[in-house]
């Protein structure tokens, strides 16, 4: 029984060394697989560099990314083999920091202050700007942590998920019926949804229309959730105030893309929470054990739901 590591090695030396030294793991590093029938577990990045269907005894696959949308669409990852996504406290903390940083920049009028400085204008403010309510699409690992941190800063926070949730200090809404009342109060909308058939294109004109006038969007989920032309329109007619985008349908964002130079759009290059190579050693080791024991994996993806 062996574990095949196919993810990036540079930067993950410590992880690879740890797996190598682990007494119960027989580590193989792609493309040195050894006898293919011995491979029972595979560690992969956003996409698999190898057709995993050739390993007839494969019992589990661990993603080194939190979002598994590409792996779910990858024919090289056999659908009957359990797949687990990455979760890591550093990743969660980075995402929350990003969300807090961008929310504060919007709430404290960062763009207006930077513009004023570039015009050498003294933008005097007698009263602080009103505190917007924050709506978080997706109350999973990332959304929940971000919601808690924002609530801790005194923001009024709403959240939206598929199933009803109870979260202290957060007004929770669920399902299609809960979406409108949630959006109607979301002065800053943060998207932390996984990409699934139901969330593809969810950030569109109809959704924007339900947001309060002047609302802002922080998009850190996955690029195809956003209908790009609809966002440009909503910003250009003034219904939306700002958009901060970390993920895009095409990454890297092409140089000629209108988002780069739009005065109300901030582009960050998929850095809100970085899945650092080498992250999640404990999860990989535990899931390897579970796969061999025939137990469900920790953070196993539900293929029907797509996350
Ligand atoms: P989780 O699987 O823990 O949570 C997903 C949340 O989305 C859950 O609350 C779930 O509802 C909700 N959800 C899913 N589908 C729907 C739907 N149709 N309607 C309403 N709610 C829905 O994911 P994480 O929080 O760990 O991560 C979220 C996403 O963030 C990842 O899938 C990835 O795409 C993205 N990401 C982006 C990164 C970046 O650098 N920009 C880094 C890491 C992740 P319920 O609670 O009811 O299941
Ligand atoms: C992601 C990640 O899913 O970086 O975007 O883990």
Number of helices: 9
Q: What about the largest sheet?
A: 7 strands, parallel
Q: Strand pairing plus helix content: what structural class?
A: alpha/beta
Describe the strand arrangement of the main beta sheet, using strand numbers.
8-7-6-9-10-11-12
Instruction: Give the fraction of residues assigned to helices.
Output: 25-40%
- Give the overall shape: elongated
Q: Please tally the β strands and state the result.
A: 12
Stretches where pLDDT falls below 50 for ≥5 residues? none
Q: If you average the pLDDT, what whole number results?
A: 96
Please trace the helix and strand order, writing H or E for each element. Answer: EHEEEHEHHEHEEHEHEHEEH
Question: What is the radius of gyration?
Answer: 21 Å
Could you explain how this protein is built, in words?
- This protein is of the alpha/beta class.
- Helices cover 29% and strands 17% of the residues.
- The chain has 9 helices and 12 strands.
- The protein has helices at residues 13-21, 69-72, 89-107, 110-118, 141-152, 175-184, 205-209, 228-236, 281-293, and strands at 2-5, 27-29, 39-44, 60-63, 83-84, 134-137, 157-161, 170-174, 188-191, 215-219, 240-245, 265-267.
- The strands form 2 sheets. Strands 8-7-6-9-10-11-12 form a 7-stranded parallel beta sheet. It has a 5-stranded parallel beta sheet with strand order 2-1-3-4-5, covered by helices on one side.
- Strand 6, helix 5 (141-152) and strand 7 (157-161) form a beta-alpha-beta unit.
- The longest helix is centred in the first third of the chain and has 19 residues, at 89-107.
- The radius of gyration is 21 Å and the shape is elongated.
- The relative contact order is 0.15.
- The structure holds NADPH dihydro-nicotinamide-adenine-dinucleotide phosphate and oxalic acid (OXD).
């Amino acid at each position: 029984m062996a574990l095949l590591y196919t993810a990036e090695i540079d930067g993950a030396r410590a992880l690879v060394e740890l797996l190598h030294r682990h007494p119960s793991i027989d580590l193989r590093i792609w493309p040195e697989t050894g006898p293919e029938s011995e491979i029972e577990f595979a560690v992969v990045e956003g996409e698999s560099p190898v057709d995993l269907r050739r390993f007839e005894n494969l019992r589990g696959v661990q993603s080194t990314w939190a979002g598994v949308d590409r792996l779910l669409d990858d024919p090289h990852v056999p659908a009957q083999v359990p797949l687990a996504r990455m979760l890591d406290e550093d990743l969660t903390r980075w995402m929350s920091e990003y969300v807090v940083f961008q929310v504060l920049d919007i709430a404290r009028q960062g763009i207006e202050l930077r513009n004023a400085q570039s015009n050498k204008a003294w933008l005097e403010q007698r009263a602080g700007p009103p505190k917007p309510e924050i709506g978080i699409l997706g109350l999973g690992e990332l959304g929940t942590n971000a919601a808690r941190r924002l609530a801790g800063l005194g923001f009024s926070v709403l959240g939206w998920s598929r199933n009803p949730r109870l979260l202290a200090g957060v007004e929770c809404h669920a399902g299609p019926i809960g979406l409108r009342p949630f959006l109607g109060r979301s002065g800053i909308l943060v998207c932390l949804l996984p990409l699934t058939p139901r969330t593809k294109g969810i950030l569109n004109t109809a959704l924007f229309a339900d947001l309060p006038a002047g609302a802002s969007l922080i998009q850190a989920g996955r690029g195809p959730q956003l209908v790009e032309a609809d966002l440009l329109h909503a910003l250009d007619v003034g219904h939306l105030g700002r958009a901060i985008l970390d993920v895009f349908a095409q990454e890297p964002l092409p140089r000629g893309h209108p988002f780069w130079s739009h005065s109300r759009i901030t582009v960050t290059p998929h850095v809100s929470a970085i899945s650092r190579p080498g992250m999640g050693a404990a999860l990989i080791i535990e899931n390897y054990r579970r796969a061999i024991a025939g137990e469900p994996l920790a953070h196993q993806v539900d293929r029907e739901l797509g996350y």
